[in-house]
Specification:
Number of strands: 2
Shape: globular
Distance between the termini: 26 Å
Number of helices: 15
Order of helices and strands: HHHHHHHEHHHHHEHHH
Radius of gyration: 20 Å
Length: 319
Amino acid sequence: MIDYFKKNVDFLSRITILLIIVAGMSVINPPAFLNWNNLSTVMFQQAPFTILMSFGMTMAIITKGIDKSMASIVVLASMLSGSYFKNGNLAMGFLIALAVGAAAGLLNGTLITRVGVAPFIATYGTDFIALGLAYVVCAGRYIYDFPANFRVITNGCFIPSVPNIALVTMIIFILLWFLTRKTIFGRSMYLAGFNVDATILSGIDAKKVVTVVYTINGLLAALVGVLYMARLNAADPNISGNLCLDSIAASLIGGTSFGGGKGSVSNAVIGALIIVFIRNGMNIMNISTNWQQAVVGFVIIFSVFYEMAIGRLTKKRMG
């Protein structure tokens, strides 16, 4: 039992923080916050978007990078595929959305690994390109009123009491957990983030690994775009909102280190739930979105300092 706690102290500490936040919000406003309708809505319908985005952000940060373009890829993928979904051509809609996401992610990966552009600059540039193209495509118009057979992917329940969007998120989590933890690619990803030179010397194509990571990020962003359309019943060029900020916050709160080589999709789930419950509680208390942004910013800074402190303590113990 003691060995289990030592091995999983990072994950368990995040669980503890989540429980403290939920308990605190329950004490502040128990009738509105602590009821199954609110809790299930947060966990099964609101959190999946942040969770899926944080998966990609976590993988990027593990490789000592970042992906600023994911939120704009969400917008572009939804605007380009929306008309197909509206007309009932679901197969083509999914194909277009995923192709857009993969292309944008591949562009990021190529700029970073082949051209040598810093991840922040490369993805920031793609962010502007994707959002600009999205506004050109939509020309100020919304796409709305999608057919029921499309909206069922978020609003329906294949498993009783479990919305399909939550089921999709669970499946993606299992796939990415296996990919990052049980495959050669996953080990290579961590090695590339920890020491890219040593990774290359060991015979691993680190550039290919990083390119694949950013391509996966693009696919995840495109999937979020499709799910958002189904949930909102509209393709809105302004849907990016806090997706990027919240995914970064979720990754850092989950223990992903900006130094690379450390993090997990499991912890990203907990980090995302922490962010979503903080926002939910503040919404219930009628706290403005401006203050919510400030709180998330403070949480990000706290997470960075927390990881720095843990790193220093670890070095002292090893020394």
